[in-house]
């Protein structure tokens, strides 16, 4: 039986070989199949055998043609020295399609060929060699398409969509002690610093940094490279090109590459400008560029979510890390009061961006952890700077201002606090909540308020204490009260005209106004008692070596008018009575030598306009050397 089966196999094999040898001649093949099938019923399935043989031959022919197409486009191929240096994607889309079809056929062959003979092994070697050449050419074309179709970031359109929020406030470069001098000078010269909270983008701002028509071509190449096992090379090319594009975008946005050490050495005025550009860059990069890159990766590599994520992370992490390094450098820099608001701006924009970054980097744990680290550094810097500012206000020891005018520290701190209120939400999230244990306002218990509310109340209390301490430096008691009225009134006005009023409350304002009324009375007593004494009988003939005229200042219009009225009401009646008793003596000049020289001069001035009550008031003020109201 075994011999019979072996003989049948030999017969079938011989018949198959005969027909195979005739395969090139279709008519001869068909005739031979018919003769053999009639000769022996064992050869009745010879046509099925030869169908498989025909398919193998057809596949071989297709492979030969595909191999030829690939070799023709091999720039280093010795068999084709006239081959071109790039694929005909731009000018010859038909040839490009033909090339991709050839690649597809070779991929199919390598995936489906079972090596059962030396001949099959030879075919596989040729296929793998052709595939390697094809992948090299596809890699080059992939790179060229990415580069040729890149669209630069439109800076004009970008800045046209930017909206800025500004706050006017004068800063100085240095500590709060230096601010005392620089603030006054800046205010007088009108060269205040405008703090921009940061630019915001229009809600409809969107850009494509690559031409849409190129995406399908990129996808066609990426699909074939990934299918052939060349996903690493494909991702590397993609990431390198797109990374350079993002670097160029940062340059357009004004973000330069600096080491942390370099940032530390930059003067704050220059660094502040860089920080403003950094804030805009964070918004543009996260909201526009990164989402655009994510979308592009999904379109080009839609066959593999893993490759999408890997390419996106490799493409964008360098750009993000450059931005984060700058934020870290600012956070660990030397603390000073003028930096606080910019640090808060940076913290806020990064908090907003962090949610988007977490959504973008599904597996980018490094990026997300770095974001959290920079946020922590910025928050610590902001809180630390705020605490240093509180300490500086308490410890500030500059001299009081000549003439009792508003002290620069009062202006500086109150404008600083007005700006702080704009950051209430952020500061409430950063500052410890110790409102329950706070006792301020001369022992009064304050109702539970926000952390920033408590700290600002304490800060104003410190400022008031500082002002009262400075007022004791005046030798003239009257000038001390002028100084207190000017400064506390300025604080009240700043509170009333801002959100500070909500924090401090109307009761706080009423209490300070009560203090001003007390100081008003004390001022009249201290400044005019001696003048009134001269107008009494016992004052005649007395001596006075003091001059009442001074250069005191009251900047507030209302307070200045109130003081004028009070002085007039206090002095004019006494002076009229004095003139009634001694007017004739003054006219005749008797006892004149015994009167104070300044009083004589004042009486003459009053007599010049005795018929005009208002003018008389003014002359009386001149008479007694009133403040420069």
How would you describe this protein?
InterPro entries: Cullin_repeat-like_dom_sf, Exo70, Exo70_C. It comes from Lactuca virosa. The protein has 629 residues and is an all-alpha fold. It has 23 helices and two strands.
Compact description:
The chain is mainly alpha-helical and 629 residues long.
What tags apply to this protein structure?
single chain, 629 residues, mainly alpha, two-stranded antiparallel sheet, 23 helices, 69% helix, rod-shaped, disordered N terminus
Topology:
Blueprint: H1 2-21, H2 26-39, H3 46-72, H4 93-112, H5 118-148, H6 155-160, E1 162-168, H7 176-189, E2 194-201, H8 215-227, H9 231-252, H10 260-264, H11 268-300, H12 305-331, H13 340-360, H14 365-395, H15 408-421, H16 424-430, H17 451-471, H18 477-496, H19 500-504, H20 506-534, H21 557-588, H22 597-607, H23 613-623
Antiparallel strand pairs: 1-2
Helix pairs in contact: 1-2, 1-3, 3-4, 3-5, 4-5, 4-8, 5-8, 5-9, 7-15, 8-9, 9-12, 11-12, 11-13, 12-14, 13-14, 14-17, 15-17, 15-18, 17-18, 18-20, 20-21, 21-23, 22-23
